Amino acid sequence: MKKELKIYLASPRGFCAGVKRAIDIVEKSISKFGSPVYVRHEIVHNKQVVEELKQKGAIFVDELSDIKDGKRPVIFSAHGVPKSVPEEAKLKNLSFVDATCPLVSKVHRESEQLNKNGFEILLIGHKNHPEVVGTMGQLPKDSIKLIETKKDAEALNVNDFKKPLAYITQTTLSVDDTAEIINCLKRKFPKIKGPVKEDICYATTNRQLAVKKIASKCDMFFVVGSRNSSNSVRLVEVAKKAGCKNSQLMHSEKEIPLKDIDKSDTIGISSGASAPEKLVQTLLNNIKKDRKVSIEEVVVAEEKVVFKLPKELN
Length: 314
What we know:
By secondary structure, this protein is α/β, with parallel strands linked by helices. The chain has helices at 17-33, 47-56, 84-91, 102-116, 130-136, 150-155, 175-188, 202-215, 230-241, 258-262, 277-288, and strands at residues 3-11, 37-40, 58-61, 74-76, 96-98, 120-124, 144-147, 165-169, 220-224, 247-250, 266-271, 291-299.
């Protein structure tokens, strides 16, 4: 007889509106312009998504200089690109479609506006993440200072800033860790200006809330997602902080730890904003082979956000 296992399934999980739009842009570009179409960087941080798009006719490149056929269109990833990239594309006469998530574009516009209004800008984010590279690349070099941790914020010297100060953030950070950094900045710089509306995106926030709600009830917690997906890695950290020490990222190379699952009575499952739902269902089906499973879906929000496609594809 199979032993019973309770699974809490976090909702929302998986694809957000920005990821859906980016994947749609690649697929519609292939059907409109034929294949191949080039994509600069991974369109979203998920290996399965990238592999499927390759099979449909997308060629992924690191830089525009890697494009072999200048007559084919190129798509910029959902994470956004520095200003220098579309400028280079225009110089090379490449036709391009920008799949930057509209919520990332909002942060780009904020940074430009703040810069224009004479502010010095602090960006809370992770060094070398494509979104951070893109945001810092909206402005001249040294116009934005990167803050990665609370320690970085504490190390700032009040006298180093001659102009008014403002902060913006990467959209896929941990809500709680970012709040700690912001509180530290506000203590040091009481007049610092923040965004009118949170920069951390609704999907990141909702997925973290759902994980927080169930992690403390679980012996193990799994987040389905890629290792280079910032929001997926943050979900694992959130689950650990919320009370499930044995929380892990289920990425494409990781074997399902069935022995550990066998010792558990309750597990939680969520997935990052760039992970397809079928990967969650595959994990569930594998667990069901050995255990009698009852699933409770824990819903913290209904997501109805849809982003329009760029006009080139309408």
